[in-house]
Write a structure and sequence with these properties.
alpha+beta; Beta Polymerase, domain 2; cca-adding enzyme, domain 2; 2 domains; two-stranded parallel sheet; elongated
């Protein structure tokens, strides 16, 4: 196997990952650090996750590590836990061509079962991109590179291993991974790897909503969301993840609001500040929600009912594509709902809104709406001043209370006549 001697900075390598490799090799197995961690180490960044590839079968790995558990259906792997750190250990796999059966593939060519073990060379061949098919041997400080990954890494190029059409059909999520790497690393997607993206985006419809939700988090919640949005649109893939939002991107500065929300999230991640998918999804689905609410109001529904039903409709349609756990969809609905309450600048309502647990997120969302071009009569500036003003002086900012409409007398309910 092609080997390249290399000196990786040991302080950037997870000590627990090295322990896993050493215990496997001491037991007579092959074991290497592999994939994204090796790629990132070579690029001089600090990997968040460390993966190990070995010829030991999952059950054999599990026997070596008491602090481990077997997971996975499509392909069994082992998670070895060291406190909060989890080292993922996977057995060498055979190329997919070795298991071309009806049980292993869907009608469209997507892999359904992947529990076929192979050799080191076969494992390198079946990985997705060349830059992720680099194996680091810490005992000898060498990189094993059978797919010319080092060359592509040096050329800052994303290249699929094998026939791109076939590899995307085997797992359509690879299209999103190509986009994510382009956004994260600033690499170019090699022409043959890029060509099928616009043609095969429809295959993402076959991916379970829960898995697509996780991919959306990787795209938008790892510090390069703004660029991921741009690349998704470049290759016509955004619409397969957010069809309602994609249809309305040209309406009322919708794309700019999404871009600004993602840029804000990127800055918060860079500053190690907390972020939540609820804010991102609120921006992604805001325009579909506004459109649906306006439609219901035009049909005669009250603002309250229209807002409630519009949120249900928009979230319900999105759940058919990507799941949105309730711990995120609930806060997202609150952010939307508060946009209708923030314009009230009289009475006790503003003071009460300040105490709302979602006020800060709703206020930030309001500022982004204005920055994106929404004309809100200086509402964002008013709320900024209101927060900066002492409680005793806030009354001066309030609008005069309007005369209350006379209360309509309550009609007494007639008791039903009891049958004789």
């Amino acid at each position: 196997m092609p080997e390249v001697s290399i000196d990786l900075s040991p302080e950037h390598i997870n000590v627990d990952a090295l322990k896993v490799v050493k215990r496997l090799t001491d037991a007579g197995y092959q074991a290497y650090l592999v994939g994204g961690c090796v790629r990132d180490l070579l690029l001089g960044s600090h990997p968040k996750d460390f993966d190990v590839a070995t010829d030991a079968h999952p059950e054999e790995v599990h026997e070596l590590f008491r602090n481990s558990r077997l997971i996975g259906r499509r392909f069994k792997i082992v998670h070895v836990r060291f406190g909060r750190d989890i080292i993922e250990v996977a057995t060498f796999r055979a190329p997919h061509s070795e298991m071309q059966t009806e049980e292993n593939f869907s009608d469209g060519g997507m892999i359904l079962s992947d529990n076929i073990y192979g050799t080191f060379s076969e494992d390198a061949e079946r990985r997705d991109f060349t830059m992720n098919a680099l194996y680091y041997d810490p005992d000898h400080d060498t990189i094993h590179d059978e797919m010319s990954g080092l060359e592509d890494l040096g050329n800052r190029q994303i290249r699929l291993i094998g026939n791109p059409d076939n590899r995307y059909r085997e797992d359509p999520v690879r299209m999103l991974r190509a986009v994510r790497f382009k956004a994260k690393l600033g690499f170019a997607i090699e022409p043959a790897t890029a060509e099928p993206l616009k043609r095969l985006g429809v295959l993402l419809r076959d991916i379970p909503p829960a898995r697509l939700f996780e991919e959306v988090l990787k795209l938008f919640m790892t510090g390069h969301g703004e660029q991921s949005f741009a690349v998704l649109r470049e290759y016509d893939l955004f619409g397969w993840l957010f069809p309602d939002a994609n249809r309305l991107l040209d309406n009322d500065h919708a794309a700019e609001l999404i871009r600004l929300a993602l840029a804000s999230t990127d800055r918060r991640i860079a500053a190690d500040m907390p972020v939540t998918p609820a804010f991102i999804f609120a921006a992604l689905l805001w325009q579909p929600y506004v459109e649906q609410r306006a439609r219901l109001e035009a049909e005669g529904e009250s603002t309250y009912i229209a807002s409630f039903e519009a949120a249900n409709d928009v979230v319900g349609r999105q759940l058919q594509v990507t799941s949105i756990p309730k711990r995120f969809s609930g806060p997202m609905r609150d952010i939307w709902s508060l946009q209708h309450r923030l314009p009230i600048r009289s009475g006790k309502k503003p003071e009460a809104l300040l105490l709302h647990k979602r006020f800060r997120a709703a206020y930030d969302f309001l500022l982004l709406r204005e920055e994106a071009g929404a004309q809100l009569d200086g509402l964002g500036e008013w709320w900024t001043r209101y927060q900066e003003t002492s409680e005793g002086e806030r009354d001066e900012l309030l609008a005069p209370a309007t005369a209350a409409a006379p209360k309509r007398p309550r009609r007494r309910r007639r008791k039903p006549v009891q049958p004789s």
